[in-house]
Structure formats: structure tokens, C-alpha cells
């Protein structure tokens, strides 16, 4: 009896220990032997509410839950600061497969500018989900009606025109404008770019403190619909679909052979376990293929741009090389 009792106690201890170990890692194996989270998942938007990262994270969480793609609870938290660097540092320190974050070109640009020690190589790219695009807007009463008129004036005196964006110098809003302006023949080193990371860029445009607003397409929709601004150009290859966005001309159709893709996808902590990576890859592919996500894309003017882990890694490497050249030309690197 004593041996049997001892064996039962040992079995209980082993089971309890295994359960605690699984719980502490935030994961467990399903009945099929596949990894799945056994704790709530958090998706970090490394910026404040309302922007592209925040919207993408919240819409993904919403569809994951409403469509039953992921059974576990999902929460979205905002970690603004440093152009994304604060959120990246948070994820890097946690190293939990239950903690993900959404990102886009700043994950390449901010480290290239020497403003963050972390780059995409310090995390695990899981899947890219969408392509968003840049938009260049002016007040409704501005004298420019297209990009060529704007850039003609900037060629004469680039510093006389104030360009404002929400990202830091050398990050996305700045670089997307620089890339198109350079192709149009503007001296990009003399462009007067002002960064307003506190959400006041649009207000500055409307009150006359700035002349041009460089931002994402989605951030211009309401004001364009209300007739308060006009969008001189967008950075997509072709015109976008939608009641408002379809009226926005591309830079390419205005004879400026330049585009800028604001890719946006999801990343995990460094050295994510292969089983966890496989789980999330499948879930994000299911999300990308869903009708509910297609409706979200249409609502915000996003294009489908799914990439799995391997495709994403190759894409990010090429993007980094291209952006490095622009950063070097602007003398904004380390």
C-alpha cells in the first residue's frame, strides 16, 4: 500500500509540475500534438491609438475572435514611444510566444537612423498582411492641384515649403515623401520636414502651420470626404479601390516613376519556437483569406499582401538594402 501511495504521489507531482511548466510558458500542445496558446495573447501596437499599427492590430484581433480563428482571448495594448522602439523593447524583453506586435517600414528605418538597437532580425517575422500606401495632402485652398505643380515649386526653393508628418525624420512619413520627391528632381537634402508625433500634423496643415501633409491613405479619407483637404498623390502602383480613394491620383500616373509600399505585418519575440511560429502562420493565413478581413481591407483602403515567414524574411532583407541608400543620401544614418 505504501508503495502504491508513493507512486500515486509521485505521479501527481509529475503531472502538476508539467502543468505548471506549460502554464508558465503560455503554451501547450493540442490533442493533435500541435502547439497552441493556453494564455491570452497580447498584440502590441508600438504607437498610440488611432494610427495604422493600432487599427491593424485591433482589426486583426477582432476578426480572429469573431470568426473563431483563434479560440484564446486576444488583447491589444499600445506602447508608444521612440517611433516604435519602446514597443519593440517590450516584446524583446518578454520573449513570450503569447506576445506579438504589428509593424511596418519603421522597423527598418528607425534602426537605420540609429534610433533603436532592435531591427527586424531581432524578432521573428510571422506574416505580412496588407499593403497600405502613402498620401500627400494639402489644404483645399492650396495653390497646387497636382504633385508636379508642388514639386516644380520645391525645385526652385525646397526649404520654402514645410512638409509635416507623424513620424520622426528618416522614418516612414518622411522617407515616402523623399522617395517620390527625389524621382521628381527635388533636392531632397533641402526639404523642410517637420515631425509631429503627438497627433497634431493634420491640425498644423489645416491651420496653415504646414503646407504639405505626408501620411497614410487612411488618415486622409475623412478630411478629403469633408472637402477640407485635397490629396495630390498616393504612392501605389495603381489607383486604389473605394468611393473616396479612387479619386486620388497616383504619383506614377503624373509621370513620377516612384512608389512606396507601407507593408504591415506581425512579428513575434526573438527565436520563437518553430511550433509556435507554425501555429501563428496558419492563423494569419486563415485571417488573410477570410471574407471578414477582405471587408476590413476594403474599408481602410488596404491591399492584400500576404507573405509567410520565409517570404517575409527575404522581402525585409531587400527592403532594408533599398532604404539604406536613401538614409545614407540624407546623411541620417549612424
UniProtKB/TrEMBL annotation:
The stretch of residues making up the signal peptide is: 1-18
| A Pfam family reported for this protein in Swiss-Prot or TrEMBL | TctC
For this UniProt record, the keywords arranged alphabetically read as follows: Signal
Concerning Gene3D superfamilies, the annotation shows: Bordetella uptake gene, domain 1 (3.40.190.150), Periplasmic binding protein-like II (3.40.190.10)
Keyword flag Transcription regulation: no
Q: Which PANTHER family match?
A: TRICARBOXYLATE-BINDING PROTEIN, UPF0065 PROTEIN YFLP
The family this protein is said to belong to: Belongs to the UPF0065 (bug) family.
Q: This protein is called what?
A: Putative tricarboxylic transport membrane protein
User: From what organism does this protein derive?
Assistant: Melghirimyces profundicolus
Amino acid at each position: 500500500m505504501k508503495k502504491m501511495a508513493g507512486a500515486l504521489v509521485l505521479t501527481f507531482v509529475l503531472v502538476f509540475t508539467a502543468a505548471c511548466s506549460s502554464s508558465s510558458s503560455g503554451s501547450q500542445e493540442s490533442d493533435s500534438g500541435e502547439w497552441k496558446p493556453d494564455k491570452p495573447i497580447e498584440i502590441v501596437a508600438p504607437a498610440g491609438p488611432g494610427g495604422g499599427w493600432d487599427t491593424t492590430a485591433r482589426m486583426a484581433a477582432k476578426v480572429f475572435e469573431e470568426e473563431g480563428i483563434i479560440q484564446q482571448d486576444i488583447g491589444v495594448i499600445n506602447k508608444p514611444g521612440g517611433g516604435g522602439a519602446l514597443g519593440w523593447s517590450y516584446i524583446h524583453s518578454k520573449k513570450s510566444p503569447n506576445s506579438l506586435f504589428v509593424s511596418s517600414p519603421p522597423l527598418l528605418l528607425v534602426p537605420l537612423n540609429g534610433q533603436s538597437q532592435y531591427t527586424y532580425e531581432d524578432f521573428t517575422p510571422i506574416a505580412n498582411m496588407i499593403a497600405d500606401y502613402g498620401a500627400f495632402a494639402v489644404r483645399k485652398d492650396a495653390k497646387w492641384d497636382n504633385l508636379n505643380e508642388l514639386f516644380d515649386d520645391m525645385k526652385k526653393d525646397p526649404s520654402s515649403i514645410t512638409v509635416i508628418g507623424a513620424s520622426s525624420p528618416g522614418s516612414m512619413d518622411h522617407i515616402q515623401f523623399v522617395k517620390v520627391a527625389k524621382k521628381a528632381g527635388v533636392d531632397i537634402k533641402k526639404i523642410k520636414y517637420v515631425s509631429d508625433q503627438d497627433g497634431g500634423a493634420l491640425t498644423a496643415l489645416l491651420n496653415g502651420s504646414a503646407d504639405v501633409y505626408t501620411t497614410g491613405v487612411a488618415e486622409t479619407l475623412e478630411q478629403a470626404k469633408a472637402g477640407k483637404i485635397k490629396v495630390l498623390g498616393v504612392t501605389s502602383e495603381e489607383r486604389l479601390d473605394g468611393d473616396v480613394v479612387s479619386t486620388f491620383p497616383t504619383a506614377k500616373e503624373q509621370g513620377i516613376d516612384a512608389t512606396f509600399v507601407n507593408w504591415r505585418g506581425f512579428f513575434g519575440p526573438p527565436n520563437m519556437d518553430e511550433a509556435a511560429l507554425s501555429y501563428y502562420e496558419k492563423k494569419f493565413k486563415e485571417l488573410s483569406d477570410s471574407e471578414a478581413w477582405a471587408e476590413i481591407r476594403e474599408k481602410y483602403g488596404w491591399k492584400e499582401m500576404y507573405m509567410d515567414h520565409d517570404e517575409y524574411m527575404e522581402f525585409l532583407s531587400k527592403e532594408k538594402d533599398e532604404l539604406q541608400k536613401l538614409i545614407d543620401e540624407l546623411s541620417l544614418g549612424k
